Amino acid sequence: MQPQPGARRPREEKLKRLGPLQWIGIIGVHSHLFDNQCKGGQRRWRTLVAVALGLPTLHPDDNVLAFCDVRGCGEWLDHHGHHRASCTCRLEGHLHALHDRFQAGLHGILRDLPGVTSTTDKHAIPTHVAVDRGQARAQREQGDIYVKLPASGHLASVIGKPDLVIDVTRAHTHTQRGVALGRQLLQHKADAKYRKHTQPYTSQHIAFLPVVADTVGHMHADVVRLLYHAATVKASGNVDNEGLIGRAREDHRFGFRRANIFRRYQADLGLLLAALGAQQRHHPQHFSFAVPRSRRS
Ligand SMILES: [Zn+2]
């Protein structure tokens, strides 16, 4: 029997029409962040939309000629917020706060996995001597998150060791003069972190992973891999979870559960990064540090 040619079309057209707007669904979950209940919410929303569309991030009402208040800088502040987002000297407290918010978002995902313990306490994270031989004094270096994985579990088997140190990096997509740095920015930052930490940590029998993202929400491939494997473990709900990849292949319900969790991790972290980037493009006083948190919890 011939399938009805017209029968499926309305559904397909609907899907096609919704495609480019899928991000609206993600924003919808976090909509309370963009109203008056959250300080700077409307400004954050405006900036997020402007960045997504490539428009100036400053509203015409704010559009007075302004100069960077970082001491020793004094450059003109562009309307896309690139200078503000990449001039680091004296706004370090603000930048650290944004970095820590992203770090906390990732830490929350890892800590929530069955059998995994994880800390961001600097006293508990293993240190090593700096690799850079140019330095006269031996300086201690360390990552941002120290994770202990169940020894017989899925994560330890894909990472290769039950001890893992993660270093979190956020990088702006443009130079101070507004020149786009392109996608290789993520790879360059990740390479630099691997060079700095991998060998010294390996000699302590600790695995090292850089988590690199940019200020609009792109994540380096290795971060996406980490989230994928984290979602696999989360979907299994077990501490001893060997052979999960094969199980996902056979059990479709498990596969869908993992896909659901994986997508949620990506969406939550991606929106968090975009919202933090929006804060970074304005003066800190115009925003609160309130962070996106989905309503599921
Ligand atoms: Zn500056």
Describe the structure.
By secondary structure, this protein is of the alpha+beta class. It has one domain. The protein is built from 10 helices and 6 strands. It has helices spanning 9-18, 22-29, 41-53, 82-86, 92-111, 154-159, 184-202, 221-236, 244-250, 252-280, and strands at residues 117-119, 127-129, 140-142, 145-148, 163-171, 207-214. Helix 3 (41-53) packs across helix 10 and helix 9 crosses helix 10. The longest helix is centred in the C-terminal third of the chain and has 29 residues, at 252-280. The radius of gyration is 22 Å and the shape is globular. It starts with 8 loop residues before the first helix and ends in a 17-residue tail after the last helix. Zinc ion is lined by residues 68, 70, 73, 75, 83, 87. The site of zinc ion has 6 residues, from loops.
Poorly predicted segments: 5-9, 11-22
Provide a count of the helices.
10
Q: Main sheet?
A: 4 strands, mixed
Q: How much strand content do the residues show?
A: 5-15%
Give the names of the bound compounds.
zinc ion
End-to-end separation in angstroms reads 49 Å
Give the topology, please.
Elements: H1 9-18, H2 22-29, H3 41-53, H4 82-86, H5 92-111, E1 117-119, E2 127-129, E3 140-142, E4 145-148, H6 154-159, E5 163-171, H7 184-202, E6 207-214, H8 221-236, H9 244-250, H10 252-280
Parallel strand pairs: 5-6
Antiparallel strand pairs: 1-4, 2-3, 4-5
Helix pairs in contact: 3-10, 5-10, 8-10, 9-10
The structure holds zinc ion (ZN).
Zinc ion binds at residues 68, 70, 73, 75, 83, 87.
